Amino acid sequence: MKELYEKMVNEAMAAQRADVETVKRKRGQEFVIEDTKAYVDAANKMKPIGEQSEAVFRLHVDSINAHYEILKGLTKTVRPEDDPFVEHYQTPVILEILYDEDEKFKKSMEVFIDAIGKAEALIGRESVRRYGGFYGPTCVVDFALIPGSTSNVVNRILKETDIPVEHKRAILAAKSWGMNTSYGIGDVFANEVENGATVADAVKKEVEMVKYIYDSPVEAQAKLMDLVGHTSFDVRKYMSEYRNRMRGAVKEAVYGGVHYGNIVTVPAYCVGDIAHHIAQSTFNMCKDDVVMAVIEATTEVMESTLRNAIDKFKNEYQLLSLATGSTACAVEYILELDGFNAPMIVDLLTKRFHNFVQLYPTRSAAAELHNHDFMDMIYRGWRHLDMARRMVNGAGTELTPKVAGFDVDLKPISENEVLMNPQRYAYPGCAISVRFSALMRLADYPCLLTSEPVTATMMTNVIALHKDKPGAPARVCKECGAACLVDFRHQWCQWKEAV
Hints:
Layout: H1 2-26, H2 37-44, H3 54-74, H4 90-101, H5 103-117, H6 120-132, H7 150-159, H8 165-173, H9 187-194, H10 199-215, H11 217-228, H12 235-255, H13 260-263, H14 266-269, H15 280-285, H16 289-309, H17 316-337, H18 342-359, H19 369-392, E1 402-403, E2 406-407, H20 411-414, H21 434-442, H22 447-450, H23 452-465, H24 481-485
Antiparallel strand pairs: 1-2
């Protein structure tokens, strides 16, 4: 298995390095689609070995190539306001291909859509709760089943829907790592209420919107983009061309026994690096030397930690756990260098969230989702670091946290010249919040810290080993930072009840 583990690390780090090195080279400059070629090249080197499914890898690699080539043909660049949506055009198309290929699945979806119409009370309650900030900071497009997420509501409806369980799991996956449109639960409701509609009428409009994204996902996504003023490229042409390019890979996966839940997710979560992670917004953010250094040092921690553990891994899941756990430790460690820690930041961002709700009642459904991701990450890192500090005690030995029993190498942080010299980036005598302030910028955009390209690449490797089992959503307790440290909301989660 060592060959597999080494391959997984190599492929994941190639994706991460493609992003980080491109951003480092182009930060502060103008973004063009061709800037993402390094990531495409890294993806094209991904190959299945042993028992891994070729069909799963084809979904991943073909989607990246299709996404890149289509965008390159439609536009020279993507403006920052449009870049968050580039990974939302794939799942709608894939769903419609599945409707065409499998009448039984299409029938199940029709039954589910009918069930949405009967779930007015549930959808109304959840929309009201999101609107009022009942759950605290949440992630509306969460990859698990946390309170306030669309997948949480979808799961509740699916539990009461009489369709085959594997179809239920596919539908659930399509609104987790799969991104069936950009819509997040409660958005129509909030805007309708603020525009003067009655609560009852607003709920009816919300129900119709949720039905729409499953009944006509491609059309729904196009109209959503019209509403937000998307101008970078013709999204309808994109989805039409994407359908043509991906039909073969989808059909191969269908007839090759790949679970529909994987077919709707794998092509979506891998494309975000093209015009989103490598994009104008990232080039702008990383003009700041300290922000860039945080991303670089965290990447070094992850790679060093993974490579040190290759001979010790016992299963493929440990790699993903260590990859994400090591970066959590790295970011928390950087935070602690300025005298902050996760409990302080979770408290701060949770209090800020409730003020934000009052200031902006029609805030985007996604507004706080990356803050939520960031809090989850540092809370996880804090728990590992806290235990490591206790074990060091007064011995003065090197701080080496453990994740899943593996050592995390924090030396790349202490060896990073920028991070270790904050006095160069503020008034030298008072530069005690430089690293913290950089992390607060990254709290709105932690994608290269968590890290999404690494997670996507490793998940494809894992799914390729278990093609007949849905890889999403994550059927585990996420130990959300806000829920563990501030808010009482565990009873509204659905991770143990996932269909």
